[in-house]
User: Fold this.
Amino acid sequence: MQFNASLSTGVRRSACAVIGVHDDGTIGGASRDARDEAVVGGLHRAGDFAGRLGDSLLLPEAAGRRLLLIGLGPKRTWSRRHYRRALKEAGSALVRCGADHAAIFFTAADVPDVDAYYRARYAAELAAASLYRIPDFKTGRKPRPSKLAQVTAVMGERADLAAARRGLDHGAALGVGQRLSRDLANLPGNVCTPTYLGNAAKRLARGQRRIKVRVLGAAEIKRLKMGSFLSVTRGSDEPPRLIVAEYRGATAAKAPIVLVGKGITFDTGGISLKDPPGMDEMKFDMSGAATVLGTLAALASAAAPVNVTVVVPTCENMPSGRATKPGDIVTSMSGQTIEVLNTDAEGRLILCDALTYSRRFKPSVVVDVATLTGACVIALGSHFSGLMSNDDDLAEALTEAGKRTGDPCWRLPLTEDYSEQLRSNFADLANIGGREAGAITAGAFLAKFADGLRWAHLDIAGTAYMTGAAKGSTGRPVSMLLDFCLNHGR
Ligand code: BES
Ligand code: MN
Ligand code: ZN
Assistant:
C-alpha cells in the first residue's frame, strides 16, 4: 500500500473521499468543498446519517466516484480513542467497498494530544491493519484480496505535511511489523515450531544489510549452561532454539536496546498439565517472540537510527517421561538454583536465562515481552499490558509510548514483599509465589535475574490476542515498542 499526505486541494478527484461527521452533523477535519457540507447536513437532518462512532455510509457519486461518511461521535468526547476507532471503521468500510484509492479527510481534524505525525501514523497503521487476513488453512475459495492500494491523509495546513509524511512512513513500517507478528502468532503450533521461528528470523535478515541473525541449537544452549531454559524443553520432541537478531541503525558504539520475547510455541503446562478448555490458545504463547521480531521488522522497514537486539528463547512445554517434574531443581545460567514447583510457570524459566544472556550486549535497557500469567489477564483485562520495572525512567518511557500509540500498559508495583513469596526450602528460589499477585510474583522472579540492568517486563497475556469469535493475534504491543525504540535516548 502507498501512502501520501496532501492538502485537500491536492486530492485527486477519482479518490474515494472519506469524510468524518460528528453526531451534530458537522464535519470533523476537512472536506472537498461546500457541497460536501450541504450533502452531509441534509443527510443528518433527514436522519439518514447520525454521525455516531462506528457509523459509516457509502454514497455513490457520478462516474464511479464515491463518498464515504464515517461517524466521529460527539465532539465533547472526541479523543485519540475515538479518532482511532473512526479510522478503523474507515479501513473496514474501504476494504468492503473495493475502493483502490482513498483520501481520508478527517486526518485534518484537531484531536486532543495527537499531533499531525500521530494522526497520519495511525491512519497508515489502521489502513494496513484493515488489509490483514489470518493465514488460514481453509480449503474453500479464498476471498478476493482487497483492492485498496493507495491512501492519502489530508492535512489542514501546509506546515503539517512534513510531519504527516514521517508519520505515514512509520505507520507503514509498523504495518509490516504488526503483520509479521500476527502471522507468526496466528499459525498453529504444529507449523510454528521453534525451528520455524528460527527460520522466520533468518528470513528477516535476507536482503537487509542492517539485520544479523544467529540461531543457536540445543548443543550451544547447553554450552551456555542455560539449565533453566533446558528444563522446559525436556518433555518435547521439538528441538529448542535461541534466536539472536541484531538491527544496527546507529553507530556501533551505541549501546543497544535488548528486547527479549517469550517463545513458547505451545504451552500444555507440562506435567502440571493445563485443563483442556481453551488450551488451543496456548499456541499464542510465543506472542512475545512474535512481538519482538515484528518490532525488529518495523524498525528495519523504517530505517530507524537505533540499535536493537532481539533475544528469543523458544521451545515447547510438553509432558513426557523425560519432562521436568514438580519439585525438580535446576541451575540457571546465572548460577541461581530454581525449584520448579509448577511446570506450567515455564515462561519465567526460559526468560531468566535469556535475561542473563542479554548482558553480553552491554545493553542500555532490556525489555522482556511475554504472555506470562493468567493473573495479569484478571488484573488488567485486554486493555492494558502489565508493566513491571526496576527503573522509574524506563517504566515512564514505556508508559508514555503506550499512551502515544493507543497501545497502553500499566505499571504494577515490584517490591521485596513480592519476591519474598518466592522463597524455597530447597533452592535459591521457587518458580511460583502462590495465588496472590500472580502477575507480580512472576515479574519478581524475573527481577532476580535483572540485577544491575535497566530492565522492564511487559506481561501481554491479556493484550496479545483475542479470544472468542474474533480469536486471533492483535499485533500488540509492536506499536508501543516501535515508538519506545524510536524515541529512546532522544
Ligand atoms: N502461558 C501461560 C500464561 C497465560 C495464561 C497466558 C492464560 C495467556 C492466557 C503461562 O505459562 C502459565 O501457564 N502461567 C501460569 C502460572 C502459574 C502456574 C503460577 C498461570 O498463569 O496460570
Ligand atoms: Mn504455562
Ligand atoms: Zn506459558
